[in-house]
Design brief:
The chain contains 5 helices and 2 strands. Strand 1 and strand 2 form a beta hairpin. The N terminus is likely disordered. Keywords: Membrane, Transmembrane, Transmembrane helix.
Length: 204
């Protein structure tokens, strides 16, 4: 009769290892969880990118909807009638840009709704990303024109245009230039790492 404290045999150890356990000593077993994959598969990656686009769209849509609601209310104020032709033209351009920005930022949702189930999620993610960039450009222009319309009524023309130009330059640097610089820096670092690994293999 085998004792309970006796060590498992070699054949039992083999079966335990195959079952996903490690024999750490006589009569003692420790569970070993399977290793998780270090990289996500293509389907997980496209789903993650789509969820990120949805989150970004919600943030941008909130801003443009508030701004567009403000622009629509301006036309019904008494002071709007006293504005000059230049201000009226700026207002029309601003409203059109705001409407175009809303269309671009809602386009990813429409794409997903009409193409859902058509096995085109990869293409939808790529196109939705481009619509997001387009919507951000239109949103920046809408904000710039809105500032020009507001500042032009309380400041001199030159000062208003200077301040609007400074704000637009800030938007361009923070929204577009900085991500581009970081992307180029990451690509350069990846290229340097690849050349370093290749040189190390050649030395070996």
């Amino acid at each position: 009769m085998k004792s309970l404290d006796s060590a498992p045999s070699d054949s039992e150890n083999g079966r335990l290892r195959a079952a996903g356990t490690i024999v750490s000593g006589p009569g003692r077993e420790k569970d070993r969880s399977p290793e998780k994959p270090s990289q996500e598969d293509p389907r997980e990656r496209v789903n993650r990118r789509w969820n990120e686009i949805l989150q970004e769209t919600r943030v941008a849509q909130t801003g443009i909807q508030i701004l567009f609601g403000f622009l629509l209310s301006v036309a019904f104020t008494q002071r709007f009638e006293r504005l000059g032709d230049f201000d009226h033209r700026v207002y029309v351009v601003t409203v059109v840009l705001g409407a175009a920005a809303i269309g671009a930022l809602i386009a990813p949702v429409a794409l997903h709704r009409f193409l859902s189930g058509s096995q085109m999620k990869d293409e939808v993610v790529v196109i939705a990303g481009r619509f997001m960039v387009c919507g951000m450009v239109l949103l920046a222009l809408t904000i710039g024109c809105t500032l020009l319309l507001l500042l032009h009524t309380v400041l001199t023309d030159a000062l208003a245009e200077l301040l609007v130009g400074a704000v637009m330059a800030w938007f361009g640097a923070a929204w577009f230039l900085l991500p581009l610089v970081l992307k180029l820096r990451s690509a350069r670092r990846a290229d340097d790492g690849g050349r370093g690994r290749q040189a190390g293999r050649q030395q070996q």
